[in-house]
Please model this.
Amino acid sequence: MASLSAELRTGLAGTARLSPKLQRELVKKLTEAATAHCQRPKKRDLDTIALQVVSHYPDALKDVIDGAVVGSGHISLTAQLVARVENINRSPSVPQGIRRKRLHPEQKDQRQLRPIDGLGSVSWQPPLPDNETAETQLGHKTELQQMHQRGQWDSEKVRELSSLSYYLQRQEINSCIRVGTLLVEWPFLVVPEFFYGHMTELLGFDVRSRILEGLQQKGPHLIAFFCTLKSMQSSLSILHDLDSMSEEARRRYGTLPAVLPALMQYFKEDLTVLCRGIEVIQSVVIIVLIGIIM
Model:
């Protein structure tokens, strides 16, 4: 406890759940202590640590929604510890914990094994394609830069060149290049259509659909949690406007228009960074999200 900040010690001793900022500080301290004894502690060891800490500070750390304990009550802390340990042990260019994708037994005959790193990517740093050279990779990159500078491009051509230059993109990203420099070198990575193409190649599934499905499925639970927090009431005011939504709009959007602003406020982020506009017009929810719905 001596190494914890006064603010964190006060938060742990209180009756309210720790803020995200203090949770991150606690996770950092716990992983520093764990990795001091073992560089790569196993998940079961981290789970034991999380269980002991949550048992000692249940009011500040236990997973509770609407007064009901979620699962074992320490799942979220375990997940944060596991993620931090994986991050601090992760090489910038070589994926950690390589394993094989498991397919259904009926697919064994047509199985194509792909390495997956510890955080789920299937193409963290692919090899240079046989029909490509360093010169051709740079040529694709230059052509993409020129197309973006002109302000007009053929989307199909951009997708083709982006796919061909994926090796070089990953190489530069994994070299820990600064984000500002990266976006100058690869300007199409800030265009949602092509950013999602890159992420689909990296993770092996349609990221955009997965994000929206997750938000819609978990939305009611998140809203229920946020409604218990006095500091979140202003973000949830849009719920009153959603009452006028048509049935079709309800099926399509669910609580998504309320979940996004609430998440941004909860993590103390600027909503305008993610959302260009969220409003209800004539019983139809209009949501314009940078990089999610375009």
In short: Residues 92-100+113-205 form one domain.
